[in-house]
Amino acid sequence: MNFNYSLVANNFFNKVEDYLINAKIQKIVANKIAIFIHQYFDFQNFNATNSGKDNSHILDIGSGAGFIFENLEKSFKNKFNFHNFYELDLSLAMLKKSRQSISSKLQICADFNFLPFQNQSFDLITSSFALQWSDDIDSTLEKICGILKQNGLLVLALPTSESFRNFSNLPFRINKMPDAIKIKKTLNKCGLVEKFYFQETCFEKFDNSIQALKYFKKIGANNILRNLDEYDLNDFRKLRNFYLKNYQTKLSFEIDWAISYFIYSKNV
Q1: What distances in angstroms separate CA 13 from CA 66, 107, 221, one per listed residue?
Q2: Residue 95 confidence (pLDDT)
Q3: Of these four, 30, 96, 152, 226, which has the most CB atoms within 10 Å of its CB?
Q4: HSE on the CB side for 209, CA within 13 Å?
Q5: What is the 3-state secondary structure (H, E, C) of the chain?
Q6: Distance from C-alpha of 213 to C-alpha of 224, rounded to nearest angstrom
Q7: How far is Cα 221 from Cα 214, in angstroms, rounded to an integer?
Q8: Partners of 60 in the beta sheet?
Q9: Closest Cα partner for 30 from 85, 74, 95?
Q10: Taking a C-beta distance cutoff of 8 angstroms, is the pair 261, 32 a contact?
């Protein structure tokens, strides 16, 4: 990947309120992740083997404003207390916003490229719309697999390389999202077994491409665009002409998110 990770963190730090208003796709995906967790993670087994208490250790990587936890609580309707639910995010502002809504969880402000946990620490690890920002997604996935316990469950969702096809004809060089096939190969290499996988395309419609680019900024994801210091003079000419043209016309434009869902288990 070609992301400036410090810029990514700064973008999300400065755009918390805008993110909460505009992160519609992210909220939909978080809800689906909660459904998959409900379907594939055996909470009843952990409940039965821990004297009637839910002692399973759960980690949400890149937790943001806590969408996954919020959906899990709604899904289970207070049946489980989630005493050992950890939210990890690089943005302290996002963690604080998550804490305002629900407080019965543990929060860690840290970089998921350097996970601060011992091996085999978690029964369930989940992540939504976060791992695409990884400096080295193969290395990050290997670390995630390492801290997952035997018989643990991994539930991930992220935009993958087939996203943003509508930007292909624009004078913007988009940082490519991770490749889903490569992710699956890495997870298999780490000894995980696929339980379920699927990809869906979600669309968001805007008045024109300028509004679409402003949307990226509002959700703190403007680093999807290639770093400006990599543009040459010809690139800037194209950008200038593009802006002049699009500020004067109203052309409907869609952002296409190719979302891949990975549900894997770490079998003994």
Answers
A1: 15, 16, 11
A2: 86
A3: 30
A4: 17
A5: CCCCHHHHHHHHHHCHHHHHHHCHHHHHHHHHHHHHHHHHCCHHHHHHHCCCCCCCCEEEECCCCCHHHHHHHHHHCCCCCCCCEEEEECCHHHHHHHHHHCCCCEEEECCHHHCCCCCCCEEEEEEECCHHHCCCHHHHHHHHHHHEEEEEEEEEEEECCCCCHHHCCCCCCECCCCCHHHHHHHHHHCCCEEEEEEEEEEEEEECCHHHHHHHHHHCCCHHHECCHHHCCHHHHHHHHHHHHHHHCCCCCEEEEEEEEEEEEECCC
A6: 10
A7: 10
A8: 87, 126
A9: 74
A10: yes
Dist. CA 137–CA 73, nearest whole Å:
29
Distance CA 189, CA 61 (A): 21
Helices (H) and strands (E) in the chain, counts: 10, 7
Q: Which of 102, 133, 121, 104 is nearest to 5 (CA)?
A: 133
Task: Identify the residue whose tokens are 């690890």.
Answer: 125
Residue type at position 214: K
pLDDT tens-digit map of 63-122: 988 999 989 888 776 666 667 889 999 888 888 877 655 556 788 999 998 899 999 999
**What are 216's two structure tokens?**
């990226």
Tokens coding 249: 């016309």
- pLDDT-derived band at 49 (thresholds 50, 70, 90) equals very low
Q: For the purposes of burial, counting CB atoms within 10 Å of the CB of 181, is it exposed (0-12), middle (13-18) or buried (19 or more)?
A: exposed
